[in-house]
Write a structure and sequence with these properties.
Length: 167
């Protein structure tokens, strides 16, 4: 698993478990890098994970979304491999709203995606809710002037960015 470098982050904790189980209290891996390899995974099962980021003083500075994966050897399910966006930039006036148009492209083959009752097909997160808020359906509402990024996540954590400017 890998992720983008974030300014001000000193170390990361990765929590992983099989779907249907609770996350462990202790991290599965701790690293200063932006990637980890977790060994001894049964790839015939589905699993989930998330990352917690800390600054150099040991303060939590953020958590990733919970990502859900179909094991690569699962007989029934496959994973998303891309997200297609209708637009990579949005400009709104304060108080206006719009919907992010996005769709998921799946891995090749006849297997199915993990069910939507397991985890939503797409999830959304604004990195600055003082500029724009986004709901679970991708509706973006301009709150205050400035710029922010809305991340669109597939079930497995694959993400695309939408740049939002509010006048």
């Amino acid at each position: 698993m890998s992720w983008d470098k974030t300014d001000g982050v000193y170390r990361y904790e990765v929590y992983a478990t099989y779907c249907g189980k609770k996350f462990p209290k202790k991290p599965t891996k701790t690293t200063k890098s932006t990637s980890v390899t977790i060994k001894k995974i049964d790839f015939t099962k589905n699993f989930k994970l998330y990352v917690k980021a800390y600054d150099s003083n040991g303060n939590v500075v953020g958590n990733s979304v919970h990502t859900h994966f179909a094991g690569k050897d699962h007989e029934k399910y496959k994973n998303p491999k891309d997200i297609k966006l209708g637009a990579k930039t949005i400009t709104l006036d304060k108080g206006q709203s719009t919907k992010i148009k996005a769709s998921v492209k799946m891995e090749n083959g006849k297997k199915k995606a993990l069910p939507d009752d397991h985890v939503a097909k797409l999830r959304y997160r604004s990195n600055n809710q003082n500029v724009a808020k986004v709901d679970s359906k991708g509706n973006v509402t301009a709150v205050g002037t400035g710029t922010c990024t809305v991340y669109v996540y597939a079930k497995n954590g694959f993400a695309k960015k939408v740049a939002v400017t509010v006048n």
